[in-house]
């Protein structure tokens, strides 16, 4: 069975509360349930993570070796600022899809770059919570095509 980890960065636990006009009204728990339903339908074992602590996030990335076949990463604000995140991704032992709720390229200039996108097998942004489902499907398809 394919094993996928989902890593969520800072403030994503505030979905539905923080700037709902931008991020939507779906709560973080509802997002997790949505992705878990899709994972079950795809026959995927899912490990779900969220932290507001960068070191914990980086340790979780490192711990994927042998524990996951691939991952989805929404590093939130760290996407644009964290060289430590980039360094961790350079050593990431599994393929990943970067996912964001909003369209980064329609945001403020400082949010229009990703320090990890060039290492991803794919990039999904701007579809709200459905983006996680799109990213999961694409990752599973990618993993199925690996030799």
C-alpha end-to-end distance: 16 Å
Q: Report the oligomer.
A: single chain
**Order of neighbouring strands in the sheet with most strands:** 2-1-3-4-5
Supply Rg.
14 Å
Ranges with pLDDT <50 over ≥5 residues? none
Helix content: 25-40%
Molecular shape: globular
User: If you average the pLDDT, what whole number results?
Assistant: 94
Describe the biggest sheet?
5 strands, parallel
What is the H/E string? EHHEHEHHEEH
Number of strands: 5
Description:
- It is a single chain.
- This protein has 6 helices and 5 strands.
- Helix 2 packs parallel to helix 6 (about 130-145) and helix 3 runs parallel beside helix 5 (about 85-90).
- It has helices at about 20-25, 30-40, 55-60, 80, 85-90, 130-145, and strands at about 1-10, 45-50, 70-75, 95-100, 120-125.
- The protein is globular and about 40 Å long.
- A 5-stranded parallel beta sheet has the order 2-1-3-4-5, sandwiched between helices.
- By secondary structure, it is an alpha/beta fold.
Task: Write a compact overview of the structure shown.
By secondary structure, this protein is of the alpha/beta class.
């Amino acid at each position: 069975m394919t094993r996928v980890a989902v890593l969520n960065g800072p403030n994503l636990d505030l979905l539905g509360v923080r700037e709902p006009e931008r991020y939507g009204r779906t709560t973080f728990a509802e997002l997790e349930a949505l992705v878990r339903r899709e994972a079950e339908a795809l026959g995927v074992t899912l490990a779900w993570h969220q932290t507001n602590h960068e070191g914990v996030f980086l340790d979780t990335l490192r711990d994927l070796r042998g524990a996951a076949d691939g991952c989805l990463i929404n590093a939130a604000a760290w996407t644009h600022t964290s060289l430590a995140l980039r360094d961790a991704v350079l050593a990431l032992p599994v393929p990943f899809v970067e996912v964001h709720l909003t369209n980064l390229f329609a945001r403020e200039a400082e949010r229009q770059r990703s320090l990890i996108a060039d290492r991803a097998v794919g990039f999904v942004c701007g579809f709200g919570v459905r983006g996680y489902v799109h990213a999961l499907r694409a990752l599973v398809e990618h993993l199925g095509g690996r030799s």
